[in-house]
Every structure is written in C-alpha cells, then in structure tokens.
C-alpha cells in the first residue's frame, strides 16, 4: 500500500499543456509558473496580489482556500488581472481543529466530505480551475493506516465520479511530517497507491518538490518515478521553504529530469521569498533551472 514507488507508467495521460499567454513567466524549456497567493506578495492585501502577480509576469495563480471570498469576486479579480486560476484545495476545517487538513481519511465523515467536495467543485468550475486538491486529512488517533487508506480511496472515488464531466481533475499530495504532522499521505508511494486505487485516468498526483525532498531526498529519482502520475507540481527549496537556489537542492538536475520526462503542466511557486520581496527573488527562474 505504501512501499516503494511502482514502476513507471506512460506519461502521455498525465500531460496537460496549458495555453501559453504572451510573455508569460516560465522556466526555460519548461513549465509555466503559477504564483501561490498564500505565499507570495504577502506584503499586499490578498485582493491586490492578483494584479501584482500579473505585473511580475505570472500567467496563473493558485491558493489553498478561496472560500472566504465570493466566487464571483475572485473571478472578477482573475479577469481584471488577466490570470488563470490553476488549482484550489478542497475545504478544510479551522486551524487547530481535527479537520484542519481535511477529513477525507476520517471514517464516518462521508457526508461532511461530500458537502466539502460539492463546494470545492462549485468554486473550481466558477473560477475555471482545472485542478482540485483533495486534502487527505490527519489520521485520527484510533484509526489504523489500513482503514484510513480504505476510507480515503472510497471518498476520493466518489469525488472523482462527481467531478466527471466538470472539467475539474482531482489531485492528491504527499506532505512531510515536519510541516504537516500526522498527515495521512506521507510518501509519494502512498499517494501513488491512492491514485492507482481510484484510477490514474480519474485522479492524479500533485508532486510538491519541497515535501518530496524533505521526506525522501534523492529528488531527481523521485521526479523520474513520479512524473508519469503528476498533474501539477509545486516548488520551494528546503530547509526554509524559500525560492529555489536559496537552499539545499541542486535544481539544474531536477529541471533536466522534468524536461526529459516531458512535463507540460504548471509549476506552482509555493515558497516564502527569502528577502521579503517576491519580484526581487524571481531571478531563480533563469539562474538555477539550466
């Protein structure tokens, strides 16, 4: 269920080339960049970050929780800035609550999970987001790994059926123990096992390069093994979750692996600018990717 990463599948079904706006910020010979508005441009109020992202050259945005804002308002912010909504998360509970990282692996909570998926799909379709990250949740203390796995798979299968025909693809993400204590999807192998159980034609992997490096290391090997399942990537440099080139990863080799694997989706910039200013730190896009 959560051992080694399975043998590679064909990457053909996992590739989704986004439309490329003129002068869009992208890795040379690589993916378009999406600004994560929870992490970038935080010196500005949230609604002002859309225009700031566009002015910096981003073609798309992502953020975990759109739900405090009316969807029509967010759609207008996207339209005015000329941005594409790439990804949102499914709803989660309040900080500090047992549901703070979702509840998809919580037995007996199917009704709550389904209500959250309905809301997530409503927002995703309203905003034009092609990806909905279905949060797995923190495993309750009295629930075994096997039961949590079965619960998550059953819930995700229902959600995939519900998403069919909406234009929204569901993705799952492994998160490291240091940043997300107790989160059910700890390794890429377990995340891929979930994808395989539900159906790789109906779900996919959100491969977060930061989480993968913190948990497993050997990032080039991990990218090569996981890329056939990947529908979306996110990036930050350990140990401080800052922009690439400020930490421990040798990024040129990683980007070579992405090019060799033919990845054609988006790359979400989910990092904390090392020196406070997002635009000042964007030199990494050309400096550490070749």
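-> sequence recovered:
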């Amino acid at each position: 269920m959560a051992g080694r990463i399975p043998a590679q599948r064909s990457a053909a079904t996992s590739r989704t080339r986004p439309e490329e706006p003129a002068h869009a910020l992208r890795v040379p010979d690589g993916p378009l960049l999406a600004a994560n508005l929870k992490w970038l441009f935080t010196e500005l109020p949230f609604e002002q970050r859309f225009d700031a992202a566009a002015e910096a050259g981003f073609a798309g945005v992502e953020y975990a929780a759109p739900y405090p804002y009316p969807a029509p308002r967010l759609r207008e912010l996207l339209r005015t800035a000329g941005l594409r909504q790439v990804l949102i998360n499914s709803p989660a509970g309040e900080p500090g609550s047992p549901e703070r990282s979702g509840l998809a692996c919580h037995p007996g909570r199917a009704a709550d999970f389904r209500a959250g998926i309905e809301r997530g799909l409503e927002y995703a379709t309203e905003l034009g987001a092609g990806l909905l990250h279905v949060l797995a949740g923190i495993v309750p203390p009295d629930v075994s790994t096997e039961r949590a796995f079965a619960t998550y798979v059953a819930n995700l299968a229902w959600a995939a059926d519900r998403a069919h025909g909406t234009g929204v693809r569901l993705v799952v993400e492994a998160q490291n123990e240091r940043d997300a204590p107790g989160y059910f999807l700890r390794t890429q192998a377990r995340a891929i096992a979930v994808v395989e159980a539900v159906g790789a034609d109906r779900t996919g992997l959100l491969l977060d390069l930061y989480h993968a490096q913190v948990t497993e290391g050997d990032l080039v090997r991990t990218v090569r093994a996981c890329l056939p399942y990947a529908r979306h990537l996110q990036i930050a440099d350990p140990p401080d979750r800052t922009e690439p080139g400020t930490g421990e990863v040798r990024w040129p080799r990683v980007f070579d692996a992405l090019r060799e694997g033919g990845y054609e989706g988006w790359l979400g910039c989910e990092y904390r600018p090392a020196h406070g200013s997002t635009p000042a730190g964007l030199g990494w896009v050309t400096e550490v990717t070749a």
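The longest helix spans residues 145-163.
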